[in-house]
Each structure stands twice: as C-alpha cells, then as structure tokens.
C-alpha cells in the first residue's frame, strides 16, 4: 500500500512540479492564476488536468486551441512517480523510512531543477535556497525519531565540505562551474552524507563522471563544442541518486577489487 500511495503522490507532485518548472524561471506566482494552456492561456479544466492520463487522452494537445503540449509534462509526472517509489523502496531496505520525507523532497526538487537547468541553464535561488532549511528540518526529525544524531552532524559536515569544494572550483575555474551549482552542492552533500561518508564521495564522483560522459557525448554528436556551457546541475543530481541507490554496492566492489575480498 505504501508503494501505491507513493506512486500516486509522485504523480500529483509531478503535476505541481510542471507548474514550478514553467513559472519559477519566469518569476510568476505558483498559485495565481490557476493552470492554463501555455499557448492560448485558457484555464485547464480539472478533468483535463489528471496527471499523464489527460495528456494521453488529449493526444498531447490543448483541448481549446489544439496546439501541442510538450511531452516533458507527462514525463515529469512519470519520472517523479517512479522516483518516489524507488526512493521509498530504497529507504525501506535501509530501515530509514524516518528520512523518507527528506528524500522525497530532494527527489522532487531534483526533478524540477534538472528540467529547469536543461531548459534555461539556471538553478533558481527560489528553489535552491529554501531547500536548505527544509532539508535540515526534515533530517532533524529523522535523526530524532531514530536517535541517530551523528547522522545529522555528518549531514551538516558533508554539506559544508561539498559546498566548500564546489566553491573552490567555482572560484578558481568560474568558466566551468556556476555559482548555482555551488549552492546546490550543499544540499547534495547533506542528503548524501546523512546516509554515509561513502555515499557522499561516490555521489560527488558520479556527478563529475556523468557530467564528463554527457559532455563528451554531446561533442561527439556535434551538439556542443569545447567552449559550450553544459548544465552541470542534472549531472550532480543524477550522481546523487546513483549514490542513494547503489553507494553500498559500489563501495563494496572497490574494497573487494583493491583488497581481494
């Protein structure tokens, strides 16, 4: 039942994230006006605003003006739903469901920031900065429930360390690291270090690896050049989820490889 509830919650949250993705970069209110067609501005009926289903039924077009509705709308809803389910199962396996709200929140902003960064190459302060106190409070609650205050201290230290590392990269190599990435690093470091130090290290390394592979791939297919600015936020977030789902296995693999365990 929990998995089903998380799948439905993910669809609902994903629908709201579509509003966030469209309006936050434009500095528009998230509350007013209500959902409307981005082409003709016609308010969307509740029956036409059912996550994924409405897009399929309407064949990806506005019911009024008939103009196409971008496919990323249902993809965001599906991705959020699948991520919510995966995160729930992962934390259940780790016996860490007390931290589920914190990691669901991270999953939600991760989806929003990924799409926004890909679209406008920016990580809005309106999402990143409020996430610091939100994640901190949710992790405090988790630590209090489990009686594991060291995990929270580790999260604070991990967030500070990764922020400082990215700040140094941005300071000495501003062309390759935006300050939005620096601010996001503190949140990524916190949620990974709450799990373990190995999750922090693996998540940070995976982010750079994914970023490098993405950059080389874009250059290989001639979609980018050596001086093309490629958004790094999505790679950071992807690397974080690699660590959330597989840090233990990756760390054990390296131990076994190095020491022949």
Describe what you observe in this structure.
With 261 residues, the chain is mostly helical. It folds into two domains: 1-84, no CATH class; 94-261, no CATH class. It contains nine helices and no strands. α5 (125-146) packs parallel to α7, α6 (149-172) runs antiparallel to α7 (179-195) and α7 (179-195) crosses α8 (197-220). It is globular, with a radius of gyration of 19 Å. The termini are far apart.
Q: Which residues sit in consecutive blocks of at least 5 with pLDDT less than 50?
A: none
Domain unit count: 2
Q: What letter string, H or E per element, gives the SSE order?
A: HHHHHHHHH
- Main sheet record: none
Mean pLDDT: 90
Strand fraction equals: under 5%
Query: Which percent bin holds the helix content?
Result: over 70%
Q: What's the total number of strands?
A: 0
Can you count the helices?
9
Structural class: mainly alpha
The dominant shape is globular
Distance N terminus to C terminus?
39 Å
Radius of gyration: 19 Å
């Amino acid at each position: 039942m929990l998995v089903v509830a998380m799948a439905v919650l993910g669809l609902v949250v994903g629908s709201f994230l579509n509003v966030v993705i469209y309006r936050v970069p434009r500095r528009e209110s998230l509350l007013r006006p209500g959902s409307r067609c981005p082409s003709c501005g016609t308010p969307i009926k509740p029956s036409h605003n059912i996550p994924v289903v409405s897009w399929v039924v309407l064949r990806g077009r506005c019911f009024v003006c008939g103009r196409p509705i971008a496919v990323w709308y249902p993809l965001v809803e599906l991705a959020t739903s699948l991520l919510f389910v995966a995160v729930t199962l992962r934390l259940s396996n780790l016996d860490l469901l007390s931290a589920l709200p914190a990691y669901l929140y991270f999953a939600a902003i991760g989806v929003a920031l990924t799409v926004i960064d890909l679209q406008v190459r920016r990580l809005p302060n309106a999402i990143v900065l409020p996430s610091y106190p939100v994640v901190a409070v949710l992790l405090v609650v988790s630590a209090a429930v489990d009686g594991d205050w060291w995990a929270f201290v580790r999260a604070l230290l991990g967030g500070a360390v990764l922020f400082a590392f990215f700040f140094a990269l941005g300071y000495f190599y501003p062309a390759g690291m935006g300050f939005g990435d620096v601010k996001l690093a503190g949140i990524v470091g916190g949620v990974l270090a709450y799990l373990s130090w190995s999750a922090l290290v693996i998540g940070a390394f995976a982010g750079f690896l994914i970023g490098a592979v993405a950059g080389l791939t874009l250059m290989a297919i001639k979609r980018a050049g050596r001086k093309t600015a490629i958004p790094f936020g999505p790679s950071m977030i992807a690397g974080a989820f690699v660590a959330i789902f597989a840090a233990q296995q990756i760390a054990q693999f390296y131990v076994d490889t190095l020491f022949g365990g």
